[in-house]
Write a structure and sequence with these properties.
single chain; Jelly Rolls; 6-stranded mixed sheet; 1 helix; 474 residues; 4 domains; mainly beta
Length: 474
């Protein structure tokens, strides 16, 4: 009696034409377990072996009265992203599987154009705009051997496109949104320091563009990754965002943070540095003077439009900012041996996302001047004195000379300054005889000087002036 009932029930199912949907999870041991729906697994870091993600085998049932076999599978997506469906078994060319993803269980509204898969490795990708349950319909026309069972095995997974928070030093897999949209990846900088950004496509480094934004999501740094890496960026403590504009490429992204003082990005004499700072951003490049003298910052490319300024060890500006916008343009600063400085690089135009490449050179200048009138160094007619006014310094350079008779004299001043220097001439009693200001040139006293001893003070016209000079008289 029991066997008769089961046989009758099976016949009724066949007559009615019910879609007998069976979904299986296939394990390594090929043990199957039934499931009413499946869930796409999220690619978290990009390091995962996707071949080990769950795969599913779906049995297709015949749709009466046509020779069409299909199945509808509820598919759960935990967040917005780009869904991938990989076909895992080769199908004959005449038996292609049509794959469509629908919003509704009645399969009336599909998400994108249909796609047929018939070879191993074929993959379908669909942009999922929000988390939820969708409906995957697999369809195949079968004009022959329609009475044979048929199934499809595939693997679903997705890359997130949602705005999210990145963790320091941790790779995060992601995919771009539509071309006219973008994704923000929040980063929290615990203290003043540097971040370094890395990216890769499917495990391989490549060139790509990002932007670093402040807490208001306003551009501060244009970020170009060359072979998967970009230069370090100085950021103050706070919240920032790494922004990626729309692109359908899937990739992985990582940033690493290092505290100020432990950053490896210290420039030395003779080295070059490339900065991608943009918008309202700024970054600092550490430098320690090897000698008493001056450094020269030389722009290595055209169209940079970046401002460079010298700061002390506390990152306080101690010079005038100078925009370097063409190849060969220079700025000069006087420095003191052993002193730590920071080169502050910032954008002169708030919308510019370009870069600047500059080279730092250093030249030592032996100190032969006096630090006060009482310690003034002797300077004979026709001899040349060389000196440096260090950035952030307050002292002046003093020289003295003697005239054996009454005469007019000429001073010749050369050198390069960030700002300007001035010469002040005093007699033996300390009375000012003449003041000469300017970057350089020849200057003659307006009257003959009496026989006797005179003093020359070389000083800054403003506290921010610095550089080197040469001085002689006759």
């Amino acid at each position: 009696m029991k066997k008769t009932v089961l046989w009758v029930f099976a016949c009724l199912l066949f007559i009615i034409g019910v879609n007998a949907l069976t979904v299986h999870t296939v394990s390594a041991a090929s043990n199957y377990r039934s499931a009413s729906s499946i869930e796409a697994k999220k690619v978290m870091t990009g390091d995962e072996d996707i071949s080990k993600f769950p795969k599913y085998t779906v049995s297709l049932s015949r749709e009466e009265p046509y020779f069409v076999y299909s199945a509808v599978v509820p598919l759960v997506i935990s967040e917005e992203g780009r869904l991938y469906l990989d076909l895992l078994e080769k199908q004959p060319a005449e038996k292609k599987v049509e794959v469509l993803l629908y919003y509704d269980k009645n399969c009336e509204h599909y998400m994108d154009d249909q796609q047929s898969l018939n070879t191993i490795g074929n993959s379908k990708s669909v942009m999922i705009e929000k988390a939820g349950t969708y409906y995957l319909k697999l369809t195949m026309d079968r004009e022959s051997d329609y009475d044979k069972p048929y199934s499809v095995t595939f693997r679903p997974y997705f890359y997130s496109t949602a705005d999210q928070t990145l963790k320091n030093g941790v790779w995060t897999a992601l995919s771009g949104k539509k071309y006219y949209e973008g994704t923000y990846y929040k980063i929290v900088v615990p203290s003043d320091g540097h971040i370094n950004v890395e990216g890769r496509f499917d495990g391989n480094n490549s060139n790509m563009d990002f932007a670093i934004c402040n807490s208001d999501k306003f551009l501060t740094h244009g970020c170009r990754l060359i072979n998967g890496k970009c230069k370090s960026y100085f950021l103050k403590k706070g919240t920032y965002y790494i922004f990626r504009s729309g692109s359908f490429d899937t990739m992985s992204l990582r940033y690493t943070f290092s505290k100020l003082g432990s950053s490896p990005f210290t420039i030395k004499k003779g080295q070059s540095y490339t900065s991608h700072v943009g918008g309202n951003g700024e970054e600092y490049v550490k430098y320690k003077a090897a000698s008493n003298g001056y450094i020269t910052i030389t722009c290595m490319q055209d169209h940079s439009n970046k401002k460079v300024n010298l700061c002390n060890s506390a990152r306080k500006e101690i010079s005038f900012a100078q925009t370097l916008y063409k190849k060969g343009q220079k700025c000069v600063y006087g420095v003191k041996k052993g002193q730590t400085y920071y080169l502050k690089v910032s954008e002169s135009l708030s919308y510019n996302e370009g870069e600047i490449k500059f080279k730092l050179t250093e030249k030592a200048i032996p100190v032969k001047s006096g630090s006060s009138k009482a310690k003034a160094a002797s300077l004979k007619a026709g001899n040349t004195a060389k000196g440096v006014l260090e950035a952030g310094g307050k002292t002046s350079d003093w020289y003295k000379f003697k005239l054996s008779k009454k005469k007019k004299i000429t001073f010749t001043v050369k050198g390069e300054m960030n700002g300007a220097a001035q010469l002040t001439l005093y007699n033996k009693k300390g009375k000012t005889q003449s003041v000469i200001a300017g970057q350089g040139g020849q200057y003659q006293t307006y009257k003959k000087l009496d026989k006797g001893t005179y003093y020359v003070k070389v000083s800054r016209t403003t506290p921010a002036s610095s550089g080197y000079y040469t001085l002689k008289w006759k």
